[in-house]
């Protein structure tokens, strides 16, 4: 009963206090008032209730600032300070000191804090009337003493790694060298050392001075100045007193340029990132994925940082942990990528401007996604110089452009799709013979001056011959015969106008911009020109029905729980099995026939199928424009590798034959090494 009355009294004092005179307040009134103000965040009123001796030790401004800064720093919310029922035994004989226990509870960035404390209410010895709070740092947190501080520390989560199909690291946590200064070791030569260091690093002296002026910089503390990039490895700093090197953890990309656009890179968050994603509660020191898989899988790779709130002594020693949330490390990503094949394709391109994709045509596993030329993502971590950034941006080959996510006119490598549609709908047959005279053809006078041209003048051809010779006219006539509706409907089954079912962002392939609106556009579309646009990956996938009995295979980029992908169809079958097999035989003939345009990829003892193509980028027939060379090839016997490669500007280098020469060594090396 006494306890109930005590709490009722406390509540009454909280409401009637503003009308009371200080000299009439009893110690329990002061206590109730103080904890009431405390919960309301009314620190100025709290200060008025502390003793005169306490006010000598801390000013009102310091008192208010200390509470606010600590509570804001720990992100305090839901504060409750509850009186704990007790029997006061008094102190000092005549009970001029009263002790009131309480329970402090709050939510913070590091989780809840629950602590028990005790407050002393003392009588003014001079007047022997007023009761005041004997304030000391322990009324912030019970374990605090004078000179102690409340430290909030972020416990960084370890970023997950990205692995290839057999566990080789594509993006990992490693270390790099950092050049820095220990200020206390500079001695009298401080200004001279800073000047020499600035000269060697090619940075302003103010850049180094700003680094040294950080609040936490002390005489005996290593202050990092720059990461040591490749261009700085040869520089000697041993003669500069106080300048030293240290290692620090950092993201590393072992395959450098070869996998740059695939892995992407990470960078420190910007103010824009923080403003754009408030829900992610970014810390200014956080890093996030900025491109490639680092961006796509950022949420999983980044994990979740932890927090620790602790009382720290004046010498920096940790005294007590008040609250702690352990970090949750990021998850690893295991991909289907074959890092060796990825590297092999990139090296084969040898700075050619182009792109390549390699997949397993039965399972849909992506083995390689290559864009050439590229950049070294490690430089973003080591410290990218303005000169390097300018060089990349001004390079006409555009190494920062990710070409395997772009759309291109496929040219003649599209012809097997047109041929398969003709067979599927019964417009043509494998042995159907067409008689075609000359290198140019137009349907009739309605085409005006427009015509379709071909490279080889073969008067009599079958569909097989047309694929082997890569005859534009034959395929254009086939498309005209089937008509726009049938062509568009059947070609659409190959995934045109649909997003690729994969996490990596690829644009949708399209047959035309606004529908095939004329026979001329239909004819050009039949051999992959006109407005047909495909990404290299979509093009590679479009060949999978020829290997899988007519089924278009879903691409797979991530290995889940060590389960081997089995090859999931992407929609309904697009071809009958016999149609698929017929196209497969034609593509074998492209490589195995001495007249075939893909003969350069022939490997004795193996069965390589493929199709070459050249896409012309020009506004008129007469214009000389850029030519992009294509080659799609696969192992038709084991059906475990399919590659699509495109190289730009092949018009003066042999056209698609140049691409075949680049591809053949990669195929041989892969087949020999498996």
Automatic annotation (TrEMBL):
Quote the subcellular location field of this record: Membrane
Species of provenance? Paenibacillus spongiae
Q: What is this protein called?
A: Penicillin-binding transpeptidase domain-containing protein
The record, for InterPro entries, names: Beta-lactam/transpept (IPR050515), Beta-lactam/transpept-like (IPR012338), MecA_N (IPR007887), NTF2-like_dom_sf (IPR032710), PBP_dimer (IPR005311), PBP_dimer_sf (IPR036138), PCN-bd_Tpept (IPR001460)
- Which stretches make up the Penicillin-binding protein transpeptidase domain? 354-669
Q: Which UniProt keywords apply?
A: Membrane
Task: Enumerate the spans annotated as Penicillin-binding protein dimerisation domain.
Answer: 155-321
The residues covered by the NTF2-like N-terminal transpeptidase domain are: 26-148
Q: Which family does it belong to?
A: Belongs to the transpeptidase family.
């Amino acid at each position: 009963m006494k306890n109930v009355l005590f709490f009722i009294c406390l509540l009454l004092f909280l409401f009637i206090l503003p009308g009371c005179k200080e000299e009439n307040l009893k110690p329990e009134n002061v206590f109730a008032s103080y904890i009431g103000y405390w919960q309301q965040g009314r620190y100025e009123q709290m200060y008025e209730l502390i003793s005169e001796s306490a006010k000598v030790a801390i000013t009102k401004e310091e008192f208010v600032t200390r509470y606010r800064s600590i509570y804001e720093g720990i992100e305090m919310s839901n504060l409750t300070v509850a009186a704990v029922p007790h029997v006061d035994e008094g102190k000092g004989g005549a009970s001029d000191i009263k002790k009131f226990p309480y329970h402090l509870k709050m939510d913070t960035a590091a989780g809840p804090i629950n602590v028990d404390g005790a407050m002393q209410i003392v009588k003014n010895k001079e007047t022997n009337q007023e009761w005041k709070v004997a304030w000391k740092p322990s009324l912030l947190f019970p374990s605090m003493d004078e000179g102690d501080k409340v430290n909030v520390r972020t416990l960084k989560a370890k970023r997950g790694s990205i692995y290839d199909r057999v566990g080789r690291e594509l993006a990992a946590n490693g270390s790099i060298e950092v050049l820095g200064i220990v200020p206390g070791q500079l001695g009298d030569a401080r200004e001279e050392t800073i000047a020499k260091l600035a000269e060697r690093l090619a940075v302003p002296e103010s850049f180094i001075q700003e680094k040294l002026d950080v609040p936490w910089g002390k005489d005996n503390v290593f202050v990092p100045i720059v990461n040591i990039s490749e261009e700085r490895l040869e520089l000697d700093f041993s003669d500069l007193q106080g300048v030293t090197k240290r290692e620090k953890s950092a993201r590393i990309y072992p395959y450098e340029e070869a996998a740059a656009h695939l892995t992407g890179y990470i960078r420190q968050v910007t103010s824009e990132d923080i403003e754009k994603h408030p829900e992610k509660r970014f810390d200014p020191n956080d890093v996030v994925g900025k491109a490639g898989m680092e961006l796509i899988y950022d949420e999983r790779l980044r994990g979740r940082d932890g927090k620790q709130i602790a009382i720290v002594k004046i010498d920096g020693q940790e005294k007590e942990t008040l609250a702690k949330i352990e970090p949750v490390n990021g998850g690893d990503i295991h991909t289907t990528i074959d890092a060796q094949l990825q590297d092999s394709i990139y090296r084969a391109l040898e700075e050619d401007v182009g792109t390549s994709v390699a997949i397993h045509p039965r399972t849909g596993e992506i083995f390689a996604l290559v864009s050439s030329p590229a950049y070294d993502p490690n430089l973003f971590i080591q410290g990218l110089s303005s000169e390097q950034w300018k060089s990349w941006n001004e390079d006409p080959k555009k190494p920062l452009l990710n070409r395997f996510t772009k759309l291109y006119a496929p040219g003649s490598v599209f012809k097997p799709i047109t041929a398969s549609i003709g067979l599927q709908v019964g417009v043509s047959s494998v042995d159907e013979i067409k008689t075609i005279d000359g290198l140019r053809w137009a349907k009739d006078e309605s085409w005006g001056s427009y015509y379709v041209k071909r490279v080889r003048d073969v008067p009599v051809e079958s569909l097989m011959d047309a694929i082997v010779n890569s005859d534009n006219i034959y395929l254009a006539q086939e498309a005209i015969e089937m008509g726009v509706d049938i062509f568009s409907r059947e070609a659409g089954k190959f995934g045109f106008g649909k997003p690729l079912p994969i996490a990596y962002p690829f644009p949708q392939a399209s047959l035309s911009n606004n529908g095939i609106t004329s026979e001329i556009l239909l004819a050009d579309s039949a051999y992959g020109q006109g407005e047909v646009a495909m990404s290299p990956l979509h093009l590679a996938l479009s060949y999978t029905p020829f290997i899988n009995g007519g089924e278009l295979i879903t691409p797979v980029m991530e290995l889940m729980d060590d389960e081997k992908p089995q090859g999931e169809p992407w929609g309904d079958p697009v071809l009958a099995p016999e149609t698929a097999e017929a196209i497969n035989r034609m593509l074998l003939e492209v490589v195995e026939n001495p007249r075939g345009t893909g003969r350069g990829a022939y490997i004795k003892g193996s069965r390589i199928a493929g199709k070459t193509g050249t896409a012309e980028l020009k506004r008129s027939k007469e214009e000389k424009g850029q030519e992009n060379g294509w080659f799609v090839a696969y192992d038709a016997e084991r059906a475990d590798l399919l590659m699509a490669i495109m190289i730009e500007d092949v018009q003066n280098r042999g056209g698609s034959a140049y691409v075949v020469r680049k591809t053949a060594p990669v195929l041989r090396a892969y087949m020999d090494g498996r």
